[in-house]
Amino acid sequence: MLGLMQDWPLLCHRVIDHAAINHPERCVISRSIEGPLHSITYPELRTRALKLAQRLARDGIGQGDRVATLAWNTWRHLEAWYGILGVGAIYHTVNPRLFPEQIVWIINHAEDRVMMTDLTFVPLLEKLADKLTSIERYVVLTDAAHMPKTTLRNAVPYEEWIAEADGDFAWAAFDENTAAGMCYTSGTTGNPKGVVYSHRSNVLHSMIAIQPDMIGLSSREVVMPVVPLFHANGWSLSLTGPMAGASMVMPGMKLDGPSVYELLNQFKVTCTAAVPTVWLMLLQHLEATGGKLPHLKKVVIGGSACPRAMTKTFQDVYGVEVIHAWGMTEMSPLGTVCTLKPEYAGLTGEARLDIQQKQGHTPFGIEMKITDDSDRELAWDGKTFGRLKVRGPAVAKAYFKGEGGEILDGDGFFDTGDVATIDRYGYMQITDRSKDVIKSGGEWISSIDIENLAVGHPKVAEAAVIGIRHPKWDERPLLVIVLKKDQTATKEELLGFLQGKIAKWWMPDDVAVVDEIPHTATGKIQKITLRERFRDYVLPTATAAE
Amino acid sequence: MLGLMQDWPLLCHRVIDHAAINHPERCVISRSIEGPLHSITYPELRTRALKLAQRLARDGIGQGDRVATLAWNTWRHLEAWYGILGVGAIYHTVNPRLFPEQIVWIINHAEDRVMMTDLTFVPLLEKLADKLTSIERYVVLTDAAHMPKTTLRNAVPYEEWIAEADGDFAWAAFDENTAAGMCYTSGTTGNPKGVVYSHRSNVLHSMIAIQPDMIGLSSREVVMPVVPLFHANGWSLSLTGPMAGASMVMPGMKLDGPSVYELLNQFKVTCTAAVPTVWLMLLQHLEATGGKLPHLKKVVIGGSACPRAMTKTFQDVYGVEVIHAWGMTEMSPLGTVCTLKPEYAGLTGEARLDIQQKQGHTPFGIEMKITDDSDRELAWDGKTFGRLKVRGPAVAKAYFKGEGGEILDGDGFFDTGDVATIDRYGYMQITDRSKDVIKSGGEWISSIDIENLAVGHPKVAEAAVIGIRHPKWDERPLLVIVLKKDQTATKEELLGFLQGKIAKWWMPDDVAVVDEIPHTATGKIQKITLRERFRDYVLPTATAAE
Fold this sequence. Notes:
Two copies of one chain form a homodimer. Chain A is an alpha/beta fold. Helices cover about 30% and strands about 25% of the residues of chain A. Chain A has an eight-stranded mixed sheet with strand order 2-1-11-10-12-13-14-15, with helices on both faces. The first copy, chain A, has a seven-stranded mixed sheet with strand order 7-6-5-3-4-8-9, sandwiched between helices. In chain A, α1 (about 15-20) runs antiparallel to α2, α1 runs parallel beside α8 and α2 crosses α3. The longest helix of chain A has 17 residues, at about 40-60. The interface between A and B is large, with 77 and 76 residues.
């Protein structure tokens, strides 16, 4: 027997309808790529999104077609996003920070038919255009006055292009499981893989993110997504902002300390979100200038682990609550958020920071477990660590075109590739990437824990720990060290520093001092390359064991 | 092209799973029907719900079967609710305040197979049992020690009955559109009509209700649903409490001022919800005893319009924020909530109360419009009033067994039967029931507005305004008055009092002084009966017009 409730599919463009109807005077303020600040109301933004949808439809773009954007956070990107969704096409937000060859690869893999680009990326695209064979038209997100001379195929300025439509258009209607958007994971191994969001997953994800214990938005907030839309839906803010009827501030391309500071204070932003790097620049600027943050109430920090000192500074010096969060492109992206449950809400000082270092807990709609190599579930004791797996309506079940094959376990859980602990109250903390963990005698050793300790040594500039094959223990840890300039140190001195700080069996079997540790484009340690370099390394303990 | 996100149906029992796993130490505290206070954690409650599901399954109760409850808000009712849902059966929360013949009618109409009843209602059910032919078993929500001798068919005490199951049971799996629950509208005309909620509609409704601008629950709240579960899911709190991981306090059967006050303060309740009548009793108790509400932060008031004085007293005297809300059984039930958007958030004093008298605005997931008799949409100007219609994933599309026929308009909107204004910021205010509005020369006159004015006359005890047939204007208003004891008043005196306070063409054409105005069981004016009584009444203006 079925319920007798209305069929009302969860479609993303219903969100901008809601904002336009119920929050008609609320604005989206942007720093434009051309320079000046720009303001638009939700009803105006919706009308322009409708024109865009109408204009796309006239070009024969509709359900199932992919439309790429290569753009910063501005009102034009937001309205393009809703317009693409609303005609039933699929937005494909391309990350301009990828290597050019990766950009070419993913656009071709996605078979994008239209490219909507900021002025910033026109020169880059002109260099790549020959290889981008699926793109039929380039729409430059500007007006005729700012339109550059360009060799790009069928290039048009956005403003004049959408002005060809009158907006007398209705959103397309379709099933909520229809594809809505695409985002490729940057992937440290192999080619990037395309995650395909549905309208349903996007809307549910936003309804999850908007809750008080998650990002928690109301119409009284002024929210600034510094995190770009091309980072998995701007961590939901492209939908939750309009869903809550919050004011929005879009920072454009200038994410440096002074620029972000100016917007935060001028527009009385109450809630913002970005990766630690952005906040490092802001905090440096504040320290250098004596700036204050009188309006900002909370800052969501994710993408990589938020340093403890950053949390402390935001909270103690500037009175801004830090909300540590974790997610993945495959999770739309929110997974856990570190708001404080009543068990922890009363903590202060270092004890509070201890908890805030964790990545947080899951809301309803995200299930989480940690397992060992035999897929047995491990205890939530805050100490035992295992593979972190997740399940939910906004978690990927496969990649575009089947890349990567079957990605769910027997119970339908997705392996995040992270290794984590979960405490008794459900707070998850990432301890490693699963491919970096060292498997010694059936037990796991966290490379990150040892690295964090080792860089505390006054002579050490950088540290990496990798597993080296061992005849008895399968793997044993090798500590790879870059020393600070003009320093020398013995193996005994370095290992002695770790003594008593880690379990005896975690102690690295050897130390290798190198000139440089390899990094990825985004600054992370490239352990694959490092493991490759030390592939044939023989530990002193290995010869002893043989 | 479909999205590639996980299939994760929105099932109600996933909510109690979430609470048990992620909020293992949070409690549901109840005032038991037997008397003492009782406390249980979410994991314990979930285990007992699983046992109940298992026990139901053993009796052959499964998908599509209806299980009635006739019970107050206690932990047992809550676990029964989840257990019934989790085996795929349909909870049917029966309102014990209905007339006995209505209770018989709806149980037979729903074809309930099992009745789970509080001790309170055993005598009532014994009287009705002969007519309740579909009920195979009565489960009395108590233990063997408190089990009364009873003639009820296959009667068992709940505790011993579920103890026959070991809890080694898995929730049933099924489509999210499967029927989850039933609730009959009390309906002032005709027979009660059954609303059939689905798992999807219940879960989406809760995700809507939990938002900061709606009821807004976090894990740090202690929430007390004084509104009973049999009032359309206890206004979502049966699901949003566990979804947020909030502590819950269940008041049992004692809803008088002292009892509610005791629980509010003893368990530091931060958020509660009920109809105005309950709060009137609480406020009277507070005034009589000098009591305070140091922990309570907000009180959700709905069911009928919240009196202005009540809002003022809660806020000014006790520092508790009033959240005026409106909904219907057919809406799961939340429709609008009167939290303050930035346009109104800065108001104070009487201006703030003016807004808080409105029923509020809709969240994402509820669409609203007002229309005239020709189904033309009317302006959102805060003045124009029309039929209030709603649409959304948690709004009914039909009643059980097709009662009432087609209930949606051409665009899929449900006519609420209310007449309302909506202002430019989306705040709805109910001005009348559509069947009570007086249609004079194609224009509408609000009966409630005139009644509210008329009772302001010092000699008037109660007032009702109804439409009387008129040869020229179709209908004209008649003011029906009950005078205070030992008072007399002329028609001219009473109408003179209204002069200048309402538009001229709203002025009643006549006044009828009566000894008594008929009321429904819940104390509302029974306008149907009143109209029936005045069916052949001839207005003085009618004879003049002929």
